[in-house]
């Protein structure tokens, strides 16, 4: 008996210490993705979403002084990559959080990716949310010193995908995507405060220099400064932003260098500035696009009243050598910068359906190389490699930093980050109930009190092992983990969304033809039927995953909630 007991202990020890470690979800992206766009999309799935942080969890996710320096060094070192992409790029201080790996696109192009490897097993969000960065694996593959970023993933529409298309197609130097939604911690930013009724938030990387996104941009700038500087003829920092269709409705694309209409001379004088060339090239690019149902307009602050001028963008101000805010006066020392070719460029878009692969791009000449600092509101997918190529010619000379505003698809974005009540189906108030849109399922209609309904729904979701993240009082973001993963991971954070017991109780159909048992992401929201104040609909909508599995979960939740009763 003693022998068997000791043998059992030895076997347990060997299994626990020598079994191959489970692969992190973000690492799996490198195997599942076939293209760089697919990889970015996969990594972005783990973005920390709206309202996830409170004061304590946000501070826990923020880098320490040592980690912040290591993060800076990791970004700086990544830019030196030349056929030597390994995890050694990452300093030891953050090696337990970050890694670097090579990814080869299906077309043969290779890239080095700095990414977060720690994911909360239930919420499926990255634990830190500092973001990820991509550079070409070889220096020879860098055609232009363009540094692209999409500061507001999801909130600004498909700007990450659009920035990736531009990065890959232009042979740009770097691509940077944050790992948090701008509303992940909805506490007012102490850096750029914004209007009282719609403040900028702590996790808004465009308005808080404590976000790791800012440190990464400083590292990129330092690297660029050591490699020939950033002349406006060959270097640019471009941010892609988005806007709602109703915001600046007359402007399909809006460009800004960070100076508003008060300084219209910057945009109208005879000096050959990057922003002017960018506007010209955009007009050329879109004029040949027959897929557009309506004319595409490209505007500057000098010919539009659009307020999204990026005067408060902390990265743009840093790159354009405008002092930090001390009095929150957005025009402080702005005139002093007018003698400088502004390196930061912002691009905003509102048209979602412009196809970068359309015939309009085949013969398009590249953007003018001097366009280094501008903000644009335009459709991201029309901004492809062919459009930016002329902006910065394929020479070995360096490029001046330009910050471009993100391009977005049907985004509810405004400059402050508030949600447009016209564009959004969701209420601005976290405690308000949105109006129901779309088809009605009579079996999910109820007149029971809203709080009672949500309590019952949460009880049902917990009982079937669904990971739940509240987005508001009456809206939940849900994940049913894949069967191959269920029960194999344990929570590693105190604020995990559910217990291990719930995770191991995850429901799957016994019939694989009905439910392939893969991961399903969906939302559950209680909405009000228009004109019927006391009648509600429980809307269960698929976000990602197999349709049959979603249908199985839909029916299970509906039947167990028994709302009609």
UniProtKB/TrEMBL annotation:
Residues 1-18 form the signal peptide. Its EC number is 2.7.11.1. Residues 358-380 have a biased composition (Low complexity). Residues 513-563 form the KA1 domain. Keywords: ATP-binding, Kinase, Nucleotide-binding, Serine/threonine-protein kinase, Signal, Transferase. One of its GO terms (molecular function) is protein serine/threonine kinase activity. The keyword ATP-binding applies. InterPro entries: KA1/Ssp2_C, KA1_dom. Residues 338-380 are annotated as: Disordered. It is an enzyme of class 2 (transferase). The keyword ATP-binding applies. Gene3D superfamilies: Kinase associated domain 1, KA1 (3.30.310.80). It comes from the Eukaryota. It catalyses: L-seryl-[protein] + ATP = O-phospho-L-seryl-[protein] + ADP + H(+); L-threonyl-[protein] + ATP = O-phospho-L-threonyl-[protein] + ADP + H(+). This is non-specific serine/threonine protein kinase. It comes from Leucocoprinus birnbaumii.
């Amino acid at each position: 008996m003693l022998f068997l007991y000791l043998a059992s202990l030895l076997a347990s020890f060997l299994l626990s210490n020598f079994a191959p470690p489970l692969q992190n979800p973000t690492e799996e992206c490198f195997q599942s993705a076939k293209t760089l766009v697919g990889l970015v999309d996969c990594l972005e799935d783990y973005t920390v979403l709206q309202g996830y942080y409170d004061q304590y969890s946000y501070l826990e996710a923020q880098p320490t002084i040592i980690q912040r320096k290591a993060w800076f060094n990791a970004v700086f070192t990544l830019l030196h990559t030349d056929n030597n992409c390994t995890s050694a790029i990452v300093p030891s201080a953050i090696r337990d959080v970050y890694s670097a790996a090579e990814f080869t696109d299906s077309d043969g192009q290779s890239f080095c990716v700095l990414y977060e490897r720690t994911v909360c097993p239930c919420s499926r969000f990255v634990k830190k949310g500092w973001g990820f960065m991509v550079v070409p694996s070889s220096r020879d593959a860098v055609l232009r010193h363009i540094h692209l970023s999409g500061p507001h993933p999801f909130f600004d529409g498909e700007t990450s995908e659009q920035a990736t298309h531009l990065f890959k197609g232009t042979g740009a130097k770097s691509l940077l995507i944050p790992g948090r939604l701008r509303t992940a911690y909805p506490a007012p930013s102490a850096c750029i405060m914004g209007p009282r009724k719609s403040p900028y938030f702590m996790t808004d990387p465009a308005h808080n220099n404590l976000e790791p996104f800012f440190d990464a941009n400083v590292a990129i700038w330092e690297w660029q400064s050591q490699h020939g500087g950033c002349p406006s003829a060959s270097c640019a920092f471009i941010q892609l932003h988005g806007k709602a269709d109703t915001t600046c409705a007359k402007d399909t694309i809006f460009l800004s260098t960070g100076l508003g209409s008060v300084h219209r001379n910057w945009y109208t004088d005879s000096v050959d500035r990057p922003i002017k060339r960018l506007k010209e090239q955009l007009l050329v690019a879109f004029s040949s696009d027959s897929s557009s149902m309506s004319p595409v307009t490209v505007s500057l602050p000098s010919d539009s009243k659009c307020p999204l001028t990026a005067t408060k963008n902390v990265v743009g101000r840093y790159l354009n050598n405008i002092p930090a805010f001390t009095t929150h006066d957005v025009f402080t020392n702005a005139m002093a910068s007018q003698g400088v070719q502004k390196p930061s460029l912002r691009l905003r878009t509102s048209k979602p359906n412009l196809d970068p692969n359309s015939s309009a791009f085949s013969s398009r000449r590249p953007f003018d190389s001097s366009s280094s600092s501008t903000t644009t509101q335009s459709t991201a997918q029309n901004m492809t490699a062919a459009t930016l190529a002329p902006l910065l010619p394929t020479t070995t000379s360096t490029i001046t930093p330009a910050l471009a505003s993100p391009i977005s698809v049907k985004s509810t974005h405004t400059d402050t980050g508030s949600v447009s009540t016209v564009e959004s189906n969701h209420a601005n108030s976290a405690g308000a109930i949105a109006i129901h849109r779309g088809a009605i399922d009579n079996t999910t209609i109820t007149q029971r009190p809203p709080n009672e309904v949500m309590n019952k729904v949460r009880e049902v979701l917990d009982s079937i092992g669904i990971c739940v993240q509240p987005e508001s009082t009456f809206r939940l973001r849900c994940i049913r983990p894949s069967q191959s993963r269920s029960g194999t991971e344990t929570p590693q954070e105190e604020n995990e969304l559910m217990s291990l017991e719930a995770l191991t109780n995850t429901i799957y159909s016994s019939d694989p033809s009905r439910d392939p048992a893969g991961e399903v992401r969906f939302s559950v929201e209680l909405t009000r039927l228009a004109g019927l104040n006391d009648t509600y609909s429980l809307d269960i909508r698929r976000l990602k995953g197999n349709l049959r599995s979603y249908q199985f979960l839909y029916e299970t939740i509906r039947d167990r909630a028994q709302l009609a009763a």
